[in-house]
């Protein structure tokens, strides 16, 4: 991918906590597609998310979205620049209903592709639960709401941190379909996943993170079909996701 083709370009990114670097020269780029970042625990996946969205300042390198530098921006400025975030753990308001969560962004979404109604079309279950509070939703419903809330920013890129975590296979199916739907509509999706099988189903490109860098890239089902590569890069055995 050339620099002109890239929607998101991350170059030599360094970030961490205090004097301890977690990301150390991380680089990758992506266009309007779904890309997954996979890796063992402790390799820096969540640090990458926190740095991309501005929660954690970069110590060096660049993050560009459609050519515009994001590193150094506050989280709200990153969101306005076009990066929407679905955080690990969903971070919903327990006392607010589904409708109320989406209403907070409804004015910004008016006249654009993603509105409350279009989120309900993508996730019919949310429409059925629209008057229920965040604390009354199942884990899968909460994840759908977290995705729907992010979509209402109408951003060209959505970053999802561990979207399949703790979810039943039927709900993962819903999320996989949603990711494919978004890409077909021109929205890029960066998925950071511990679940290899879910990552491969969501994204045709998988980037393997090792010690704060992207060490390998795979396409399609190659990583699922190669237990030796899973063991080498992810520390899992013949069945993806199982400890070696």
UniProtKB/TrEMBL annotation:
Against CDD domains, the record matches this protein to: ABC_TM1139_LivF_branched (cd03224)
| ABC transporter domain residues | 8-236
Supply the alphabetized keyword list.
Answer: Amino-acid transport, ATP-binding, Nucleotide-binding, Transport
Query: GO biological process: what's one of them?
Result: L-amino acid transport
InterPro entries named in the record: AAA+_ATPase, ABC_transporter-like_ATP-bd, ABC_transporter-like_CS, BCAA_Transport_ATP-bd_LivF, P-loop_NTPase
Q: Which GO terms describe its molecular function?
A: ATP binding; ATP hydrolysis activity; branched-chain amino acid transmembrane transporter activity
Pfam families of this UniProt entry?
A: ABC_tran (PF00005)
Source organism superkingdom: Bacteria
Task: Write out the similarity annotation.
Answer: Belongs to the ABC transporter superfamily.
Q: What is this protein called?
A: ABC transporter ATP-binding protein
Q: Which organism is it from?
A: Jiangella anatolica
């Amino acid at each position: 991918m050339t620099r002109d083709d890239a929607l998101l370009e991350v170059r030599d990114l360094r970030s961490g906590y205090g004097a301890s670097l977690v990301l150390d020269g991380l680089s990758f780029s992506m266009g309007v597609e779904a890309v997954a970042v996979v890796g063992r625990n402790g390799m820096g996946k969540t640090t990458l998310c926190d740095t991309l969205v501005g929660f954690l300042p970069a110590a060096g390198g660049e993050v560009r979205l459609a050519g515009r530098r994001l590193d150094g921006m506050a989280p709200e400025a990153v969101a306005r620049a076009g990066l929407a975030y679905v955080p690990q753990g969903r971070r919903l308001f327990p006392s607010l209903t589904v409708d109320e969560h989406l209403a907070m962004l409804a004015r910004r979404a008016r006249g654009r592709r993603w509105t409350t109604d279009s989120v309900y079309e993508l996730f019919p279950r949310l429409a059925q639960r629209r008057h229920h509070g965040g604390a009354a939703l199942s884990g899968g419903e909460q994840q759908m709401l977290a995705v729907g809330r992010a979509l209402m920013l109408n951003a060209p890129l959505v970053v999802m941190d561990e979207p399949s975590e703790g979810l039943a296979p039927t709900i993962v199916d819903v999320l996989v379909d949603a990711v494919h739907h978004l890409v077909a509509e021109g929205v890029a999706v960066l998925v950071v996943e511990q679940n290899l099988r879910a990552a491969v189903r969501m994204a045709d490109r998988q980037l393997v993170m090792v010690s704060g860098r992207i060490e390998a890239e795979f396409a399609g089902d190659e990583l699922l079909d190669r237990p030796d590569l899973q063991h080498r890069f992810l520390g899992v055995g013949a069945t993806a996701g199982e400890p070696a």
